[in-house]
Amino acid sequence: LSQATRHGTRASVLGLLFSEVDESMTRRVGHCVAQAAGAPEPWTELMPSLCEALMQGDAGARHRALFVLGQLPEYAPELMLHSALPMLPVYTQILETSPDIQLRV
User: Fold this and answer.
1) Per-residue pLDDT tens digits for 22-47
2) Which residues contact 43 (CB under 8 A, 6 or more apart)?
3) How many CA atoms lie within 13 A of 5 on its CB side?
4) Which of 32, 53, 56, 103 fits 65 for a cystine, CB–CB 3.0-4.6 Å?
5) Within its chain, how far is the Cα of 40 from the centroid?
6) Which candidate, 27, 26, 28, 33, places its Cα nearest to that of 49?
7) Any residues with CB less than 8 A from the CB of 34 and at least 6 apart, and which?
8) What end-to-end distance do the CA atoms of the chain give, in Å?
């Protein structure tokens, strides 16, 4: 795939993640997003988009972003390795300010 095609496909899949209303489809798209994040070519827009959904999105967008983040260690461990520490303040803020988020350990 050309770089432009790859960029457009990734943008479309990410947009679908946050616009799809069918929960079973959302999970499938979330897995696709996480799998695409593990590709050798960097997806520089992914983490900022997920952070934006966590910080500014509605409860559904936050849930979907958290779902993808939960899948990334399996599909894109290298990405999570480099993103874990920078994401801590984001996680902390949403846990403090979002009553709809429940933490399970």
Assistant:
1) 999 999 999 999 999 999 888 999 99
2) 10, 36, 37
3) 2
4) 53
5) 17
6) 33
7) 68, 71, 72, 74, 75, 76
8) 40
What pLDDT does residue 94 have?
Answer: 80
CA distance 42 to 34: 12
pLDDT in tens, 37-81: 999 888 999 999 999 999 887 889 999 999 999 999 999 999 988
Q: What does residue 99 show for φ and ψ, rounded to 5 degrees?
A: -65, -15
> Cα dihedral sign for 81, 62, 50, 26?
positive
